[in-house]
Design goal:
This protein is α+β, with helices and mostly antiparallel strands. 37% of the residues lie in helices and 28% in strands. The protein is built from three helices and seven strands. A hairpin with a 3-residue loop joins strand 2 and strand 3. The radius of gyration is 15 Å and the shape is globular.
Length: 150
């Protein structure tokens, strides 16, 4: 994993979780955490790539409750998924703005929830970054198909 990719993703994660979910996040390493929620966002421009957001149930609940300011039990599954997908969308855009520069146009697919681990590709070619969100864990797996020379 390039130092630039790691640094830019760390900055994007800290900013997005802080501003959207009011959660302080610390990088914890490069190991995939056990997860219960998988979301995917494809990068289509300026280069092709993919970002996976993999969250524990506790992290998912903490993020959703902070963003909505309401109890998990009062929110519909659709509202929960929409909230998490919007978080991933903002995270992806923030990362690309850091990685390519604010003046470089980029394009993202609609983020999606994956309901089965079997749909996930082998992540051996992905850069894995793990985080602690005030005691709740999550990971990001990111791959840029043709990395720019730095």
């Amino acid at each position: 994993m390039s130092e630039k990719l790691q640094s830019n993703m760390n900055d994007a994660v800290l900013q997005t979780f802080g501003e959207m979910a009011f959660i302080d996040v610390l990088p914890t390493g490069n190991e995939l955490v056990e997860h219960h929620q998988i979301m995917i966002l494809d990068i289509t421009k300026p280069e092709r790539g993919t970002i996976f957001l993999l969250m524990t149930t506790g992290c998912k609940q903490q993020v959703v409750e902070n963003i909505h300011g309401d109890s998990w039990d009062t929110l519909s599954p659709g509202k929960i998924d929409d909230c998490l997908l919007e978080l991933l969308n903002v995270l992806g855009g923030t990362f690309l703005s850091y990685y390519y520069g604010e003046n470089t146009p980029y394009s993202l697919s609609f983020p999606q929830v994956m309901f089965d681990d079997s749909e996930m590709p082998d992540l051996k070619d992905y850069s894995i970054l793990s985080y602690d969100a005030e005691g709740s864990l999550f990971s990001i797996a990111v791959k840029i198909e043709s990395p720019r020379s730095n």
